[in-house]
């Protein structure tokens, strides 16, 4: 427990620095595991998992950034006789932004190896590979030469020669993760304590962003570090999920920290799965020098619905009037109500 406290204290100190984000990001950091590390593939309590995330950002400024992402993953060759198994998954996202509808569509195939390192712990390494397609409607771009003294007139000749083009690149990622969990069982419910630490590295091949002839810019590697915890207060209906995420890409970085407080409307036996657990949670998170993020989640056994809203507190707030990003999502986790101790044949 002391080690956990030391880690949390270190991360909270780091949270005081500046950042500039580059890759897509979601405020529901608990609900985007494969986008934070390929090692999270198949590394969870259940057999099959599917998550859908949708985000709309800067709507107050028109031409909102819109991102939709889908991830599916599961475990292969799970057995009580084996101390290890494989995880496989797929992530797909589409991101669209600006008046020119600049779009990126990314699809990665994930594979991981998970091994039991103790009675209550496990370790995972994962890799991912796929393609990234980039395009836009460049005819919608406007230029300063089209300013008529009062406003931009897109009927005026810009004098610019548009040489931008669509392009597709490969994309490679890797990561590792470790988890420790403890379960206290009772006749009508179980109480769980867990901590999961993961690391990820994306765009390892640093592909050239070939928007035009002579392009030499390479997308920087994005590094991630995340801690997700879960603590059920023994013999109560309450639990907390302190979570921390750090992203760095080139010289830009960001930090997100916060927690849900969850109320178990219906207590469940997570080990035997005889009773399904239902609950509702409210959370508050902070993205460093950018936003306060209130959240809401409703879980019904294997299904969860979640939403959040970014309250912009950066210097940009005068233009946005504190409006940031809206998110909504859905998660289905087969056998989420049963830990690996018995039904999923892992822990």
Number of domain modules: 1
Q: What is the CATH first-level class name? A: Mainly Beta
Share in β-strands: over 45%
Query: How are helices and strands ordered from N to C?
Result: HHEEEEEEEEEEEEEEHE
Q: In which range does the helix fraction lie?
A: under 10%
In short:
By secondary structure, the protein is mostly beta strands. The protein is built from three helices and 15 strands.
What order do the helices and strands come in, and which of them pair?
Layout: H1 2-14, H2 33-36, E1 48-57, E2 65-76, E3 84-97, E4 102-116, E5 121-135, E6 167-185, E7 190-202, E8 222-232, E9 238-240, E10 243-249, E11 252-266, E12 278-287, E13 291-300, E14 303-312, H3 317-320, E15 323-334
Antiparallel strand pairs: 1-2, 1-15, 2-3, 3-4, 4-5, 5-6, 6-7, 7-8, 8-9, 8-10, 9-11, 10-11, 11-12, 12-13, 13-14, 14-15
Task: Describe the structure in your own words.
- There is one protein chain.
- With 347 residues, the protein is mainly beta.
- It has one domain: Porin, CATH 2.40.160.
- The chain has helices spanning 2-14, 33-36, 317-320; strands at 48-57, 65-76, 84-97, 102-116, 121-135, 167-185, 190-202, 222-232, 238-240, 243-249, 252-266, 278-287, 291-300, 303-312, 323-334.
- The protein has a 15-stranded antiparallel β-sheet that branches.
- Strand 2 (65-76) and strand 3 form a beta hairpin.
- It is globular, with a radius of gyration of 22 Å.
- The two termini are 21 Å apart.
- Residues 1-21 and 336-347 have low confidence and may be disordered.
